[in-house]
Amino acid sequence: MELTQLQYFLTVARLQHMTSASKALNITQPALSHAISKLENELGIPLFERNGRNVELNRYGRIFSKWVEEALNNLEKGKQEIEELSNPDHGVIHISYLNILGIDLVPALIRDYQITNPNVRFDLTQGNLGDINEHFDKGHSDLMITSRESTIDNHEWIVIQKTPLYIVVSDQHPFANRSSLSLFDLSGEPFVGLKNNCGLKATITSRFENTGFMLSSTFDAEDLPTVAGFIKAGLGVSVLPKTFGLMLDGLVWVPIQEEGWEWEVGLKWRKDRYISPAAKRFIDYIDFRNVSAFSQK
């Protein structure tokens, strides 16, 4: 059963004349008759009472037309909804992002974007790295804001921000008065690490591997605020970005002497998947934002 057959059927039912219907549909009368006969054969029942070229719905036809009209109306509504959702001026952008980024970065991006795109809506999902990766891979979100290290070959990537990483200690720690520290100064210190479902884990592991120096975690926390809480309690030291939600009273942020210690956060999407016009415009906005920031330096 084809969509055109159903459209032809409703036109004939409305005009009750094969020739008039064929003219309205801009097809030949034999082609229309063939399409209606094929539909009736598929259903196994006649739909019309025929009197020459004049036709009238029979009992079965009236029942069937009611459901066909509803089905075609629903299809049209679905088409309109899809068009509205994907419209770059009025669409919905589906984004998943790491929990910690919901404190400052993501709200700021949305606020700034909606200044010039007030009718665009956002469908947001936040969670740990495992949660949002699954959400993204299943196609529930168009875009993902995360650490660079979580990208793979079929992902496209645009940097949003690079945040310096610091060695973080409690204000009672002997290192609290230091103006800077080397990673090697942490040897023997209890270290508060991160479990693999935290987006910063891969970044820190990669940076340590580049220095050739590794620390064994005394504690592995589920998320960054928990790490900050352990440090405040004097249970160890760690490496963290200086972001809202982590800057607790009783913590001291010491610059790292080694170069390259920064957390790169960006926007990623899959190049093998359809991206709506609304999402594409947001990607272009992030890209333009980066170009503008670079030109001002």
Low-confidence spans: none
Radius of gyration: 31 Å
Whole-Å distance between the termini? Answer: 62 Å
Question: Major sheet: size, sense and barrel closure?
Answer: 7 strands, mixed
Helix content: 40-55%
What is the overall shape? rod-shaped
CATH superfamily of the largest domain: Periplasmic binding protein-like II
| Helix vs. strand class | alpha/beta
Name of the top-level CATH class of the largest domain: Alpha Beta
The count of domains is 3
Mean pLDDT: 88
Residues in β-strands, percent: 15-25%
Q: Compute the number of strand runs.
A: 11
Order of helices and strands: HHHEEHEHEHEEEHEHEEEH
* Named CATH architecture of the largest domain: 3-Layer(aba) Sandwich
The name of the CATH topology of the largest domain is D-Maltodextrin-Binding Protein, domain 2
Q: What's the tally of helices?
A: 9
What would you note in describing this structure?
The protein is an alpha/beta fold. The chain folds into three domains: 3-86, Orthogonal Bundle (Arc Repressor Mutant, subunit A); 92-160 and 266-295, D-Maltodextrin-Binding Protein, domain 2, CATH 3.40.190; 161-263, D-Maltodextrin-Binding Protein, domain 2 (3-Layer(aba) Sandwich), CATH 3.40.190. 42% of the residues lie in helices and 24% in strands. The chain has nine helices and eleven strands. Strands 3, 4, 5, 6, 9, 10 and 11 form a seven-stranded mixed sheet that branches. The protein has a two-stranded antiparallel sheet with strand order 1-2. The protein has a two-stranded parallel sheet with strand order 7-8. Helix 1 packs across helix 2, helix 1 (3-15) packs across helix 4 and helix 2 packs across helix 3 (29-43). The protein is rod-shaped. The N and C termini lie far apart (62 Å). InterPro entries: HTH-type_LysR_regulators, LysR_HTH_N, LysR_subst-bd, WH-like_DNA-bd_sf, WH_DNA-bd_sf. This is LysR family transcriptional regulator.
